[in-house]
Amino acid sequence: MSEESTLQTENGASPRRRGRAATAIAVTAALLSAAGIVAAGFIRSPAQAVADAAPPPPSLLTAQVEYRVLTDSVILRGSVKAEQTIEVMAGGQTEGSPVVTKLPVKPGQAIKAGQVLIEVSGRPVIALRGSLPMYRDLEPGTRGNDVAQLQTALGSLGYRTQGDDRGFFGPWTKAAVTALYADRGYAPLPALPEGALTPEAAAEEVKTAQWALEDLPKDAPAVQRTRVGEELRKARARLAEIEAASGPMVPESELTFLGSFPARVESVSVRIGTRVSGSMMVISAGKLIVNGTLQPHQKGLVQPNRPVEILSETMGTAVSGTVTNVSDVPQSSARDTTEGGADAATGERGYPLVVRPDTPLSTQFAGQDVRLTVEAASTRKQVLVVPFSAVSAGVDGKTSVTVLSFDGSRHRVPVTTGASGNGYVEVRPAASHGLAEGQKVIVGTRRQSQGGVADD
């Protein structure tokens, strides 16, 4: 019998078999341990199940205390227009219905003083510089501020009128008007109505009366000589009167006065051959300004001289401006000009305001609907501020903020609030408490829910 057989007989099993058994026992124990761990993950007590289902504790939302210049703003819509906008109307230059016979300008075109805007039934409409609109025909011999304005406009184009008294349509002014029309290819209309005595005819009457006086015999009665002399005096007076009243006249419909140049053709509503009886074109002059309307609740917030941002959303361009006028008289609003409002009649009454850009706007702004952000108030200098949501009020009406320290502790700081704007409020801590730039204040809490994150 071999030695291995002897050992197997004595111990009842060989060493190799005993090793295999030990390994199997170890593996089994490991599997049972793992199974226990897995089972422990699925088997929970009722109390543990309730605890696991509860939401996690809320996290704090904080903001930093900071220094900034605090502004309060009013936002509304505005429309960009020129300082002066006028309609060129068809006048009564000729009998019957006037017809457009020449149209030398087109929409968007810049025009200068002295330029012909349109020709109606062969008669021109000329643009001149001036603020007083034409309200009557200007004829030789007339006087007034409108005549003085005409003289100034003629002088700016190089036509001298200094020989006449200012505001009197005399011979120098007549000559200047004649030259203005002639240089543009037209003859001015005569001042005297058809059939009236002409200066030439009146001069012949003077000549006839002069000859009659000279032909009297030397021994003619004194009465006869006096009578002939009186006829000569009357003829000379009539000639002077006719000469003063004759010459070129300017019909109301042939001049359009604009406040400044270059001006701009906004629109043309006629074409050559059109028979017209109303507006023919719209002309704008002067710098571009912005008109807006304040709602009643905004009226007390905006005063003249407040700064404004003018934003063209079409071009993505913003420029600065200043409120120059806020009307105290409400007007019915033709459209809703509040931010986000629709272009529709509202019937609401608002207060018109005018914004003048700090630098001239380019013509690309003309006619645009823009956003106006008016600075209603400002602290002028940097002040200590926190978000609105950081300030709380107690039952006693006192306000405070809650500061979150670096170690996670919290403490309340009594504060007095000041100016507010754009979501922030000025805070001044009580004398016995400190509040510094960079500290964190609690503005809310955030809870994790099954559907996502919820802020309190």
From TrEMBL:
PANTHER family for the chain: BLL5650 PROTEIN (PTHR32347:SF23), EFFLUX SYSTEM COMPONENT YKNX-RELATED (PTHR32347)
Keywords: Coiled coil, Membrane, Transmembrane, Transmembrane helix
Superkingdom of the source species: Bacteria
Protein localization: Cell envelope
Region (Disordered): 329-348
Sequence ranges assigned to domain Multidrug resistance protein MdtA-like C-terminal permuted SH3 in this UniProt record: 382-444
Major subcellular location class: other
Membrane-crossing segments per the record: 21-43
Peptidoglycan binding-like domain sequence ranges: 143-179
Xref: InterPro entries: MdtA-like_C, Peptidoglycan-bd-like, PGBD-like_sf, PGBDSf, UPF0194_transport
SUPFAM superfamilies per record: PGBD-like
Organism: Streptomyces exfoliatus
Name by which UniProt lists this protein: Peptidoglycan-binding protein
